[in-house]
């Protein structure tokens, strides 16, 4: 909203001066220079008093306005005694069109990522964060030809200035997501006494910012294959093979990270965050493909106490493909599991309950729950609709209130983990929100 208001203000000023110049048949450089300086100072004051929250979304605009203000100051200082140029309408119109384009481009980041009220955590702990880029000496990077070992970047959110041991929860993002996709969820958990570790699955994440400053973007072939699978361009067998290939990479990432964390909790010289972890209380959760990852890792390991699949299909439950059909695992799912669905996903799951992995696993599980959010879309279970409603709508949101959805989901996640990782006596969850 603020970006749109500022855009209208700047475009209106530019158009107004253009009309004024055309009517007076003068370039009105002195008045325009004063206006440019005034606009820059006015918006700077808005930053100082925190109406405009200084961030990346304003960098281009303020750079443009700063340059314009400098040129205006230079003109006012050096314009005295200069002979005025002959007025020509076409120059005014060309300048107007150019300025409108530059202004629109400069404000674009503020429109795509509008300022929004942050989702505040409910817990009593101040939250700290720290990142690490780990190298897996046992795996080569499958996305590279130079035989480098795979690097995985993780980020912790944890109770700051706290004593004691806290449950560990590990998060896996969706395809094209990144480790910060559910920051509000991590902060909510950490503020309530959890150590949260979110993993960037390198080359499957939209971008991985490593601790050495290097940025690694998603692999082009992975993007193309993912889009083809989403649009049903591949047959079922190829889709099965690709999805399990992606899943294996992620499972290996989570196992590597979890084992690394557990090893470091035993070492006295490890960083402080590792000494906050209660290794006997571990939960896994993830969104979309990350949810499938969490579910399969929890099935394979014996040290996981609870798992949450956030709007994902449990791909790992498919243990083979024969005669044109996927073979599902019939061994009872061994860990308490919660499936969170958007409405359309849940309707489809119910329709194919006898052959859909999540439903079959839940039916055979020792402890399983399903929750559906009415009106939610796939991306409503991330922070993207808050950070960028425009981008989120392009990728898939529903008509549910985005803030209500993510805040409610965060509370569901907290309550579920409290019950299984902190031994809360009751677990009060609705089947539908």
TrEMBL record:
<keyword id="KW-0472">Membrane</keyword>
<feature type="transmembrane region" description="Helical">
    <location>
        <begin position="58"/>
        <end position="77"/>
    </location>
</feature>
<keyword id="KW-0443">Lipid metabolism</keyword>
<keyword id="KW-1133">Transmembrane helix</keyword>
<keyword id="KW-0442">Lipid degradation</keyword>
<dbReference type="GO" id="GO:0003847">
    <property type="term" value="F:1-alkyl-2-acetylglycerophosphocholine esterase activity"/>
</dbReference>
<dbReference type="InterPro" id="IPR029058">
    <property type="entry name" value="AB_hydrolase_fold"/>
</dbReference>
<dbReference type="GO" id="GO:0016042">
    <property type="term" value="P:lipid catabolic process"/>
</dbReference>
<dbReference type="Pfam" id="PF03403">
    <property type="entry name" value="PAF-AH_p_II"/>
</dbReference>
<feature type="transmembrane region" description="Helical">
    <location>
        <begin position="89"/>
        <end position="112"/>
    </location>
</feature>
<feature type="transmembrane region" description="Helical">
    <location>
        <begin position="35"/>
        <end position="52"/>
    </location>
</feature>
<keyword id="KW-0812">Transmembrane</keyword>
<keyword id="KW-0378">Hydrolase</keyword>
<protein>
    <submittedName>
        <fullName>Carboxylic ester hydrolase</fullName>
    </submittedName>
</protein>
<feature type="transmembrane region" description="Helical">
    <location>
        <begin position="6"/>
        <end position="23"/>
    </location>
</feature>
């Amino acid at each position: 909203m603020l970006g749109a208001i500022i855009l209208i203000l700047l475009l209106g000023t530019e158009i107004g001066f253009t009309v004024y110049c055309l009517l007076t048949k003068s370039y009105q450089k002195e008045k325009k220079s004063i206006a440019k300086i005034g606009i820059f100072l006015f918006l700077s004051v808005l930053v100082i008093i925190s109406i405009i929250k200084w961030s990346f979304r304003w960098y281009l605009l303020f750079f443009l306005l700063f340059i314009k203000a400098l040129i205006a100051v230079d003109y006012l200082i050096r314009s005295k005694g200069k002979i005025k140029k002959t007025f020509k309408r076409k120059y005014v119109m060309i300048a107007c069109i150019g300025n409108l384009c530059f202004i629109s481009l400069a404000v674009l980041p503020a429109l795509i990522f509008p300022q929004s009220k942050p989702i505040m955590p409910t817990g009593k702990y101040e939250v700290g964060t720290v990142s690490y880029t780990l190298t897996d000496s046992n795996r080569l990077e499958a996305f590279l030809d130079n035989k480098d070992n795979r690097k995985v970047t993780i980020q912790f959110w944890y109770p700051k200035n706290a004593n004691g041991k806290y449950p560990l929860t590990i998060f896996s993002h969706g395809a094209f997501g990144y480790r910060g996709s559910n920051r509000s969820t991590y902060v909510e958990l950490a503020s309530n006494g959890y150590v949260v570790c979110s993993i960037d699955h390198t080359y499957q994440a939209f971008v991985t910012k490593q601790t050495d400053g290097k940025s690694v973007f998603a692999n082009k072939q992975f993007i193309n294959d993912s889009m083809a699978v989403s649009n049903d361009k591949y047959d079922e067998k190829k889709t099965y093979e690709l999805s399990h290939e992606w899943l294996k990479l992620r499972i290996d990432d989570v196992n590597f990270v979890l084992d690394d964390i557990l090893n470091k909790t035993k070492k006295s010289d490890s960083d402080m965050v590792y000494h906050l972890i209660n290794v006997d209380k571990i939960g896994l959760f993830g969104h979309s493909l990350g949810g499938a990852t969490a579910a399969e890792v929890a099935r394979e390991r014996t040290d996981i106490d609870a798992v949450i699949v956030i709007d994902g299909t449990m791909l790992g439950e498919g243990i083979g493909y024969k005669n044109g059909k996927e073979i599902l695992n019939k061994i009872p799912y061994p860990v308490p599991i919660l499936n969170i669905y958007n409405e359309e996903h849940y309707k489809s799951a119910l329709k194919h309950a006898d052959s859909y992995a999540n439903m079959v696993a839940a039916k055979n599980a020792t402890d399983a729950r399903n929750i559906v959010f009415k009106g939610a879309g796939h991306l409503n279970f991330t922070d993207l609709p808050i950070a960028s409603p425009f981008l989120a709508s392009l990728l898939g949101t529903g008509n549910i209130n985005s803030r209500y959805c993510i805040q409610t989901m965060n509370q569901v996640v907290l309550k579920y983990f409290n019950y299984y990782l902190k031994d809360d006596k009751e677990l009060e969850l609705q089947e539908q929100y």
